[in-house]
Design a protein that fits this description.
- Helix 2 runs antiparallel to helix 3 (24-39).
- The strands form 15 sheets. Strands 21, 23, 25, 28, 29 and 30 form a six-stranded mixed β-sheet that branches. Strands 32, 34, 36, 39, 40 and 41 form a six-stranded mixed β-sheet that branches.
- A hairpin with a 2-residue loop joins strand 28 (337-345) and strand 29.
- The protein is mainly β.
- The chain has six domains: 47-61 and 79-147; 157-252, Immunoglobulin-like, CATH 2.60.40; 258-359, Sandwich (Immunoglobulin-like), CATH 2.60.40; 365-463, Immunoglobulins (Immunoglobulin-like, Sandwich); 473-560, Sandwich (Immunoglobulin-like), CATH 2.60.40; 570-660, Immunoglobulins (Immunoglobulin-like).
- 5% of the residues lie in helices and 45% in strands.
- It contains three helices and 59 strands.
């Protein structure tokens, strides 16, 4: 044996060294042993019954549910250096990573005659990859690893973890998440289970469905609905014990934030009267939940509607213990139309009411819609008869018929004749038709009254002789020069030809610019009113005088241009030619620049400088305010032409005329 060993040492080493075995079991150990044997004179071979390697034969890379036994057993095979099975060797099976809670049954096993050891593996509670390591205790430790994939188990139960019974302000998120756990029948967590989430009482959850994690837990964030009170969050997994799980929550009222109109004012009302349905205004939080706060003053104002409206009654009401402000006698005084009210309070957002259609209130007074004539003749019916309207306290028209209205003399004496009592028509108007006043001349006022209503007085009525337009006249010149001020006299006469004194007269002109003064003149004892008239623009002016309701005229004044003035007179001076006639046209104008339509002025033209210096121009008066000047230049060059009107230089003189060959 020793001889064989010595003889075959080299070849044996060559044979053993390259064996493709992992670890010390197949390569390192034989090499060391042989190296030691070959170093001496005698060759010592290793014990060929010692384990050299361990190999997983079956059971690795399986899959199963957490907490369950894998379908196949775990089998290892232990062999020596020549791959021969090693029996009666103990193999330990140790739980590795991810196998928390799992077991190996049994945890140690002796190899059989084929070198095999077999156990069963119950997976741990953690989903994902799990490992078991098989070890053989020997001179050189040997091991191999089994791997399995643990999936979620079968969910059998749903339970609440946390989040029940929380309280937060309505509309806000609960402080803690709402969490459930999914378990199998043995109470172990089961991941990968879809949980459906829903709410009652309003609000929302962060997700309508979530999936439980490896620990079986999953949850959502819960936002409460705007309504205060009880709300709930419901977690559901169909078909398992404990489902659904309900988490209760309380939505609390927030801080006061705004006003809300609990009871709207009546949609229709009469001006000046309280609403038939009075408004009630509630304090609420940002979500509209009622806030019980006492003593906040709520003030009503007119928000929209016809201008000038005001509120009647108590405009401010304080909130009671429930935060409700109740108005009692609020109303609107204003013109008919559609209105809205605004309600406001300190540090809160206000509220605007619905539309209120306002109509006139009950009749409370009278208003004269047509005043009687300012001037009336004694004993004669007023040219303009009065009309009186029923109105409410706000001055709105009240359309009520058959209300008797009586006229009388309030001041100035005399007797009121005609039908003095008239009933209102369907529009609430009493129209008088034949009122007259007899008595001495003078100023009167009338009074109109009706039972239970405030009376009203008329404008002054001047009782005197009437003005006859046909007998009255305007005296004015037929022609006046522009800018000339003349007198215009208006004379008023009665139908019998007598002058009418004490009447205010105005005078107006049409047809162009005119200045008349003063604005109004009262006739003298002779019935005359004198005015001044002037105009700077030529043309016809039509003058009309007005005395009360009577018009006198018209008469016409023709405004013509004034006398010519040199400073406004103009000329057209062309360039000339030698030995040819040069014609210059002069237009005379008055002081306002108006062309003068007549001749008669003295116009002289002279060459005052230039090659034709000293030449005098011939002048022809064309009779229409224009003048023709002519001269024959003998030499070429620039002539300066001086032109005078009535001895004064006209506008632009001297002029330049360039004489060419």
């Amino acid at each position: 044996m020793h001889a064989i060993a010595r003889a075959g040492c080299a070849s044996y080493v060559r044979f053993m060294t390259p064996l493709p075995r992992s670890g010390w079991s197949r390569a390192v150990v034989p090499a060391v042993l042989l190296a030691a044997a070959c170093s001496g004179s005698d060759l010592v071979l290793p014990d060929q019954t010692e384990p050299a390697h361990i190999e997983a034969i079956a059971g690795t890379n399986q899959a199963g549910a957490v907490g369950t036994m894998l379908q196949e057993p775990l089998v290892v095979r232990v062999t020596d250096v020549q791959d021969r099975p090693v029996a009666e060797r103990r193999v330990a099976f140790l739980l590795g990573s991810g196998a928390d809670g799992g077991t190996v049954e049994p945890d140690t096993s002796l190899t059989d005659s084929d070198g095999r050891a077999t156990v069963r593996w119950v997976l741990g509670a953690t989903q994902g990859s799990q490992q078991v390591q098989a070890k053989v205790v020997s001179a050189v430790p040997l091991s191999t690893t089994f791997t399995a994939t643990a999936s979620a188990g079968v969910a059998a139960k749903l339970e609440a973890v946390r989040g029940d019974g929380q309280t937060a302000t309505a509309g806000s998120e609960l402080p803690d998440s709402v969490v459930v756990r999914t378990l199998d029948a043995a109470g172990r967590p089961v991941g990968g289970i879809t949980v459906a989430w829903s709410v009652t009482g309003g609000g929302s959850v962060s997700a309508t469905a979530t999936v439980s994690g490896p620990d079986g837990m999953t949850g959502v964030r819960r936002t409460l609905g705007p309504a205060a009170g009880a709300q709930a969050t419901v977690a559901t997994v169909d078909g398992i014990e404990g489902s659904p799980v309900t988490f209760g929550a309380t939505a609390a009222v927030g801080e006061v934030g705004r006003l809300s109109i609990e009871v709207q004012p009546a949609t229709s009302a009469q001006s000046g009267l309280p609403f038939s349905r009075q408004p009630q205004v509630q304090l609420v939080d940002a979500n509209g939940n009622e806030v019980a706060r006492q003593g906040l003053a709520v003030t009503a104002t007119v928000f929209s509607g016809p201008a000038g409206a005001t509120l009647v009654g108590s405009r401010t009401a304080s909130t009671n213990g429930q935060g409700l402000a109740v108005f009692s006698d609020l109303g609107i005084s204003g013109g008919p139309g559609s209105y809205q009210l605004n309600f406001s309070g300190t540090a809160v957002e206000g509220a605007t009411s619905g539309t209120i259609v306002l109509s006139a209130g009950a009749a409370s007074g009278l208003r004269i819609v047509t005043q009687p004539s300012s001037f009336v003749a004694p004993g004669e019916p007023f040219p303009i008869q009065p009309a009186v309207q029923l109105v409410d306290a706000s001055g709105n028209v009240v359309a009520k018929s058959d209300v008797a209205v009586t006229a009388g003399i309030a001041s100035g004496g005399g007797t009121l004749g005609g039908t003095v009592t008239v009933n209102t028509n369907t529009s609430g108007v009493a129209r008088f038709t034949n009122l007259s006043i007899t008595g001495d001349p003078g100023v009167r006022t009338l009074i109109f009254a009706s039972s239970g209503l405030a009376s009203v007085n008329s404008n002054p009525v001047d009782v005197r002789q009437s003005v006859d337009a046909a007998r009255s006249s305007i005296a004015a010149p037929g022609t006046v020069a522009a800018g000339q001020e003349v007198q215009v006299v208006v004379t008023l006469r009665a139908p019998n030809g007598d002058p009418v004194p004490g009447i205010a007269v105005t005078l107006a002109a049409s047809g162009g610019q005119a200045t008349i003064g003063p604005a109004s003149v009262t006739t003298s004892g002779t019935g005359e009113a004198a005015f001044t008239f002037a105009s700077t623009e030529p043309g016809a002016r039509s003058l009309t005088a007005t005395a009360g309701e009577v018009s006198v005229g018209p008469v016409t004044i023709q405004v013509v241009a004034g006398p010519p003035v040199a400073s406004e007179t103009t000329a057209e001076v062309p360039d000339g030619r030698r030995f040819r006639e040069t014609r210059i046209t002069v237009q005379s104008r008055d002081t306002f620049g108006n062309p003068v339509p007549t001749g008669g002025a003295t116009v002289v033209g002279t060459i005052v400088d230039g090659p034709n210096d000293g030449s005098r121009l011939s002048t022809t008066d064309l009779g229409d305010g224009t003048y023709l000047l002519v001269y024959f230049p003998l030499f070429s060059g620039d002539d300066e032409v001086a032109i005078e009107l009535n001895g004064a230089a006209i506008s632009g003189s001297p002029f330049r005329s360039r004489v060419r060959n």
